[in-house]
């Protein structure tokens, strides 16, 4: 009670500081999961049911230890029974008397019955994701305590609400999950302001009021965000009996809102009585025009747009659907960092602070009326649509409405959207060819792209490249995107989805639960941990596209780029370069500026590195970074200068103090050199054992050819100068794959293998060795990193020296430690294997070698699309690796990069063989 008295005193003092004509919001709850207020609470079913206690508001009660966790597909024995009873006592100051008071709920799951001082505040509200309000001025005790009672049913008594909201492919929660507050308004006040601000500078505002007095005037003044007035006020008098009025004006030299230039203004609307402000409402707006040209595309401010988007649930692992302004800011910043320009609200409207953030930072938004394989009935859907519209209509980021997802469309609601929306934004159906848009989901590359190309609708999949575990998202994106970018009828698409919905299970000792593979769909983890696809997307969706380039001796410092912005000239961007030595020479790091070209959107030109030093060729890598007009890094590209052969020649030491010895021991050739004892099979030439003065290194049983025949035969030995040579003999029919070992006096060992992949089509090819996973502690390597790669997800990494500790992370599952250790890693020059015993290093002079670290756990889905293919053995050195599939597409269905490797030549001639050269240092 003492806390409530303090709260009351705080509110009274706050009221004195507020202007009477402004709408006052008095929060009865907190504003997000990071700021809550305790309410009395009683849960009727499940955990901690049957007793009065307290709960933070806003929240989902499952995360607070009540009720039962439900995923949308689960059969719930408590359906219809699980309810939450809330009580909260608050003071109504005497100063509220004579004012209009609305009790506002921003979101409650799912049915809400409200009483004030034992009296009903109004009809039960059905539906979870929509703000709603009750007028309560006649129900309050002023200058006294009031009792608010809220009964929340997790599942709705309205079956259409359950069909639209409660049977989705996502977690189902209960509770008052968004803020609750009281609006304190003058009796005569503005009830709604609907704004349409066009790119030509024309502003229209439809203003609704509660009063029809003849002495009232409506005035609207445009301001910049820093408070400077723009033009003169627009004013009109309300006539007798008139409660709605339209104000309109054409402004000159307006700065437009886009995802690249999120310019906003403040429109201050005042209700005046005899020239004095009675009520003032402020709206932040943006001037922009959205136009759909059928059989063409989507235009914003006259510019054709390609949407680089993602689907986003309102989600935080410790609080479910209850988020915060900080979470909204984090999420939008991450999307912008991935060079996205759009986001789809799946599958319901978001928190207001999320749309505010999209407005301020620049993201195109598709705002969605809930529905997933089921839809609201027309009366219910009409009410929820009106709430959606009133809440979100003035956000410049919202440029589309979506009427339900994947069959959850009520066609009777379609004409209501333009009736309620002053801006007449386009309406689409997700996963349907509707209204000139083909938004169908998860089309494979061959059928989907081919079908899209031969249609007439604008192609804009509202879900594609499903990101279950490590599949989808970045895997296949480059193929899809390059086709989308160059095809006029394609308007972009939206990845599924942004975040792994791993929820904290308070009933299971706090584990993070993704309900198996159902909710492990994100580009980032539950706490926004970045997976490998994050960086692939960042590069593929970079608005500055660099053409592939090899750095050779005649490099002139120039790179060809394409401007893939929609509204930004590259002269507004900034480019820098950096030279780095990675071990070949000990040179200081150098950096400088690159000249920003004057390229309009869609133009190509060159970026020139200025003041490169004369000795640039002595460095190993050149990094080139691009920054957008706001200073945000677009991406940093790396271009190799030193080739693997040059690096290997510098690293490998061949001379030693004594000549190696060669002995035959039973079935083995045993060679000793500089403290190294290494043995090979006399029959197959395979490595059998490695031992130094410090002990055994359990690296052996290789090279095994994958996919191909390990048919090394007729092994011979000889001395070549000071070196021991052990090699197989070529035979076109039985021993067409060959190996050669060279052991140098230094103890370094060279392996050269020439081999033929076995089939016309193969998942991967390379060389395998055995090494016990239990002995590995980590790796340090020079190559592309730090994330693993797949054949259809090679972009996003940088060339450099990387160190990774061993982990058992499986993407999308506990412990969400990234980057994952196991898997393929690209562009190896050398790799040091850090073990529990003696470390060893492998160096290659062969370009484009992948090294493989063990095998992630096999996982798949009910359709057998997500299948991880790995070679045998434990550690591999590959020249071709496998692609990865997703929940909805097999790997080979996501474009040319995902196809298996193709070999036409079966002539077993050595000159046509694939060749790999490796060097081993077992002594350091």
Automatic annotation (TrEMBL):
<dbReference type="Pfam" id="PF02929">
    <property type="entry name" value="Bgal_small_N"/>
</dbReference>
<feature type="domain" description="Glycoside hydrolase family 2 immunoglobulin-like beta-sandwich">
    <location>
        <begin position="189"/>
        <end position="288"/>
    </location>
</feature>
<dbReference type="InterPro" id="IPR017853">
    <property type="entry name" value="GH"/>
</dbReference>
<comment type="subunit">
    <text>Monomer.</text>
</comment>
<dbReference type="Pfam" id="PF02837">
    <property type="entry name" value="Glyco_hydro_2_N"/>
</dbReference>
<dbReference type="InterPro" id="IPR050347">
    <property type="entry name" value="Bact_Beta-galactosidase"/>
</dbReference>
<dbReference type="Pfam" id="PF00703">
    <property type="entry name" value="Glyco_hydro_2"/>
</dbReference>
<feature type="domain" description="Beta galactosidase small chain/">
    <location>
        <begin position="720"/>
        <end position="838"/>
    </location>
</feature>
<keyword id="KW-0732">Signal</keyword>
<dbReference type="GO" id="GO:0016787">
    <property type="term" value="F:hydrolase activity"/>
</dbReference>
<feature type="domain" description="Glycoside hydrolase family 2 catalytic">
    <location>
        <begin position="294"/>
        <end position="509"/>
    </location>
</feature>
<dbReference type="InterPro" id="IPR006102">
    <property type="entry name" value="Ig-like_GH2"/>
</dbReference>
<keyword id="KW-0106">Calcium</keyword>
<dbReference type="Pfam" id="PF02836">
    <property type="entry name" value="Glyco_hydro_2_C"/>
</dbReference>
<comment type="similarity">
    <text>Belongs to the glycosyl hydrolase 2 family.</text>
</comment>
<keyword id="KW-0378">Hydrolase</keyword>
<dbReference type="InterPro" id="IPR036156">
    <property type="entry name" value="Beta-gal/glucu_dom_sf"/>
</dbReference>
<feature type="signal peptide">
    <location>
        <begin position="1"/>
        <end position="20"/>
    </location>
</feature>
<dbReference type="InterPro" id="IPR014718">
    <property type="entry name" value="GH-type_carb-bd"/>
</dbReference>
<dbReference type="InterPro" id="IPR006103">
    <property type="entry name" value="Glyco_hydro_2_cat"/>
</dbReference>
<dbReference type="InterPro" id="IPR006104">
    <property type="entry name" value="Glyco_hydro_2_N"/>
</dbReference>
<feature type="domain" description="Glycosyl hydrolases family 2 sugar binding">
    <location>
        <begin position="53"/>
        <end position="182"/>
    </location>
</feature>
<protein>
    <recommendedName>
        <fullName>beta-galactosidase</fullName>
        <ecNumber>3.2.1.23</ecNumber>
    </recommendedName>
</protein>
<keyword id="KW-0326">Glycosidase</keyword>
<dbReference type="InterPro" id="IPR008979">
    <property type="entry name" value="Galactose-bd-like_sf"/>
</dbReference>
<dbReference type="InterPro" id="IPR006101">
    <property type="entry name" value="Glyco_hydro_2"/>
</dbReference>
<dbReference type="InterPro" id="IPR013783">
    <property type="entry name" value="Ig-like_fold"/>
</dbReference>
<dbReference type="InterPro" id="IPR004199">
    <property type="entry name" value="B-gal_small/dom_5"/>
</dbReference>
<dbReference type="InterPro" id="IPR011013">
    <property type="entry name" value="Gal_mutarotase_sf_dom"/>
</dbReference>
